[in-house]
Amino acid sequence: MIELKNVTRRFGDAVAVDRINLTVETGEVCVLVGSSGCGKSTTLRMINQLLPHSEGQILVDGNDVTAMNPEQLRLNMGYVIQGTGLFPHWTVARNIAMVPQLLKWPRERIDERVHELLTLLDLDQATHANKYPQQLSGGQAQRVGVARALAANPNILLMDEPFGALDAITRENLQLEMLRIQSQLRKTTVFVTHDIDEALRLATRIAVMDQGRIIQHDTPENILRRPASVFVENLVGKQDRGLKLMSLHTVRDLMEAHPQPREPEPGADGLKEDDSLRVALSIMLWQNWRQVPVFNADGQETGTITRERIIQEGA
Amino acid sequence: MRVWLPPVLLTVLLCALSAGMPTLEPLFEWVQPDKQNVVYERESFLFLLQNHLMLVVISALVGTVAAVAGGIFATRPAGRDFLPLVSQIASIGQTFPPVAVLALAVPVLGFGEAPILVALILYGLLPILRNTLAGLEGVDATVRQAALGMGMSPFQVLLQVELPLAGRVILAGIRTSVTINIATAAIGSTIGARTLGDPVIAGLVNGNTAYVLQGAILIGMLALTVDSLFEAAERVWDRRFLPQTAG
């Protein structure tokens, strides 16, 4: 758990972060969102003390961060930044092994862990482990960046616009990857982004920041339904709020489930349980379907969903 | 290890030339037909080479330690304020002509090796210092931020990240500095240091072109040899720390 109490950060006379209070519960993903210069990155860097705070108190699992040795504090926090910050003179494997090496794990345990992480992030051991960061694509490099952050199994993950420099397709892939990994590992995560869609997709709770203050701290659904101010309303986009709300839920939430999963009829078209309602509606409109079967990950038919239901209850 | 072949060959050639200079007497008689002695004999060339090299190596070692330490200090948070001052000191060291340093150092340190060492150290500082600053400043800020953020101590960041990444540039600075100093060391002969400049000075004083040639050839050869040594070292460094960027 991370608690910020009345935290202020000044640069000279300028106040970058102004008396903010924020609690990030264990296992939740807290996304700090706002325009550039709103203090979100500053807030993140105060948590691992790359920037000391001017006033207030920052507690990590109940301990004041100023009382801890900064290296010790950071070794227990994975840190992922935009542009990866991978070490260009080290191989992928050595980059990932960085923190375990600092913690003086035995050789075999490090090798095993590196292998585990390459697998977790869908990187092939044989082709990638001995490459250098310059030889990777942007998406692969950022996967390595995430693997490096997770290497020593830290309790906390700090991510500073990690996917900001990637193209839209790679970014979406990594967001999905991140959701998958998070559902397995449940790390307490603070994630900084200026992309509201990314925030809505990944967050357990979103903290909207403006001019060094937190304007609203709430679940994605409540941020969309009940924006606390005009600023938040503009940020989430007033017009397509309905569609954005739909993207928060999956087909599974609204489908008519069969009592038993059944084998699909050969060649049957349909939706997947994990598709968002927004995607589902879009497909149904395009294909002009009124009712379609829903399949689970194993390809079995688990239920049906109707267009009417999505339109009525989706947002 | 094919990279080491050129420096080894040049070293062999240099030593052979120093030891076997008298056998080239007929050649120098042709250059300087009017003199009795055409091969410099007051000291053996091998001894002069050894002494010359020693002056350069000592000054390079001291200069490197001082310049790299200075460069590191000036790029740490605590030393940032001194950054302009440090670069200025180094620049001033370079604008001072070596002869002027000798003229000032002789009354204090006397004749011999000491004043030329001072001059060489001062003279060799700037290229190393400049490159140390450029190399350290050139390390990608995100890399340094990631290293710190992942829990490395500032000292570990310096040792494991900054110096390996800046080392190639620093090495190039040392190479420049040493090459310049091999030539500059010869001036030491004017104030009683024994260097390969001796035959050159003697030749100039006596109007003996053959002497001048012998000194100049050996100084040139020494510079080439040392330079090829650095060339090889840089290649080895590249292989170790800067693998090809080709995908």
TrEMBL record, chain A:
Pfam families: ABC_tran (PF00005). Transmembrane segments: none annotated. SUPFAM superfamilies: CBS-domain pair, P-loop containing nucleoside triphosphate hydrolases. InterPro entries: AAA+_ATPase, ABC_transporter-like_ATP-bd, ABC_transporter-like_CS, CBS_dom_sf, P-loop_NTPase. It comes from the Bacteria. The keyword Transferase does not apply. GO terms for molecular function: ATP binding; ATP hydrolysis activity. The keyword ATP-binding applies. Keywords: ATP-binding, Nucleotide-binding, Transport. Residues 2-236 form the ABC transporter domain. GO terms for biological process: quaternary ammonium group transport. SMART domains: AAA (SM00382). Belongs to the ABC transporter superfamily. This is ABC transporter-like protein.
Automatic annotation (TrEMBL), chain B:
Residues 49-230 form the ABC transmembrane type-1 domain. The lineage of its organism: Bacteria, Pseudomonadati, Pseudomonadota, Gammaproteobacteria, Pseudomonadales. This is ABC transporter permease. One of its GO terms (cellular component) is plasma membrane. The keyword Membrane applies. PROSITE patterns: ABC_TM1. It is a multi-pass membrane protein. The chain crosses the membrane at residues 53-75, 96-126, 211-230. GO terms for biological process: glycine betaine transport; transmembrane transport.
